[in-house]
Amino acid sequence: MLEAFFTSLLVLVCVGVLAFTVLAVKKLYQGQR
Q1: Could you give the CA distance from residue 8 to residue 23 in angstroms, rounded to a whole number?
Q2: What is the enclosing helix (H) or strand (E) of 15?
Q3: Once rounded to an integer, what is the mean pLDDT over residues 20-33?
Q4: Mind telling me which residue stretches traverse the membrane in this protein (predicted)?
Q5: b or e along 9-32 (b: 16 or more beta carbons within 10 Å of the residue's beta carbon)?
Q6: Average pLDDT, stretch 1-29?
Q7: What is the spatial distance between Cα 4 and Cα 10, in angstroms, rounded to a whole number?
């Protein structure tokens, strides 16, 4: 039970970081243009 909780938490963090990176890259890309 606890292992599943930590796994889902890790996945959530990974998705959050990925989304943040994509947004940051998009902003930088639009800023350069």
Answers
A1: 22
A2: helix 2-32
A3: 91
A4: 6-25
A5: eeeeeeeeeeeeeeeeeeeeeeee
A6: 96
A7: 10
How is residue 18 written in tokens? 């990925």
Please give the structure tokens belonging to residue 26: 């998009």
Confidence of residue 13 (pLDDT cuts 50, 70, 90): very high
Amino acid at residue number 9:
L
CA–CA distance, 19 with 13 (Å, rounded to integer): 10
Token code pair at residue 23:
């947004």
